[in-house]
Design brief:
Elements: H1 14-45, H2 52-106, H3 115-143, H4 149-152, H5 157-163, H6 167-193, H7 197-215, H8 220-231
């Protein structure tokens, strides 16, 4: 059921939705603002000497720590998905360019293309080559096992012990694993429906490359070190 839909299936007006969101935001802000007072009262009941300023300072420290932690988790997710997205986009561009080249060679399109199209075709093939080489030497070869930590959590006890107390890190890794799975499925689908040999070969090569780089990568220690380096958490 939609958050803004009643049990009878009636959708609330836009103005009502805005009012509900504003009320939720105000409530959240009020709870956040009252946190120092709650800490102060609780400390007084326990007999601790804690001023209201100390409670506010504690809240600021808590928020600062949470913000830094979230930013590091976000960085971890970005680091894991960026090579995949770059490779996926360059693969799609190259497959489109390959279709144009095949049709050009077969005479299905005019023998001369605009200069801009020729440049885009060259750039697409170069981008695929460069992204593949860079992703291999600077990430996948060293840290390709990071995409296997999510499923290996249910298989290997040592990985489960490392991540069991850090579910926030597990969620960040889940983003990378999901991106990897989506890229693999997307390229496989493109491989299945590719109309011509050249784009089919491109999709097949990249699909094999990604599977080999990750499935046969056993460098779990490197993956753990990468996580520790980014999140500053000792696993």
């Amino acid at each position: 059921m939609n958050l803004f839909t009643t049990g009878l299936g009636y959708a609330l007006p836009t103005e009502t939705k805005i009012e509900i969101l504003m009320a939720l935001l105000v409530t959240a802000f009020a709870l956040l603002a009252s946190l120092p007072c709650i800490i102060y009262v609780d400390a007084k009941k326990r007999g601790h000497r804690l001023t209201c300023r100390d409670a506010i300072r504690f809240q600021i420290t808590l928020l600062k720590t949470a913000t830094i932690g979230l930013s590091r988790l976000f960085l971890l997710a970005i680091v894991t998905i960026l090579p995949l997205i770059t490779l996926g986009i360059s693969t799609e561009m190259s497959m489109i360019s390959a279709v144009i080249v095949e049709e050009l060679l077969s005479g299905q399109v005019q023998s001369t293309l605009p200069a801009g199209v020729n440049i885009l075709i060259i750039i697409s093939f170069l981008s695929l080559l460069i992204s593949g080489v860079l992703s291999h030497f600077y990430f996948l070869d060293k840290y390709g096992a990071v995409y296997k930590l999510v499923p290996m959590y249910f298989v290997r006890n040592d990985i489960k012990e490392l991540l069991r107390k850090h579910l926030d890190i597990y969620v960040a890794l889940l983003v990378g694993f999901a991106t990897y799975a989506i890229i693999i499925v997307g390229i496989f689908a493109s491989l299945a429906v590719a109309p011509l040999p050249l784009p089919t070969e491109i999709a097949g090569v990249i699909l094999t490359f990604l599977l080999v780089e990750v499935l046969f990568n056993k460098r779990y220690d490197n993956a753990i070190k990468l996580i520790e380096r980014i999140t500053k958490v000792k696993l």
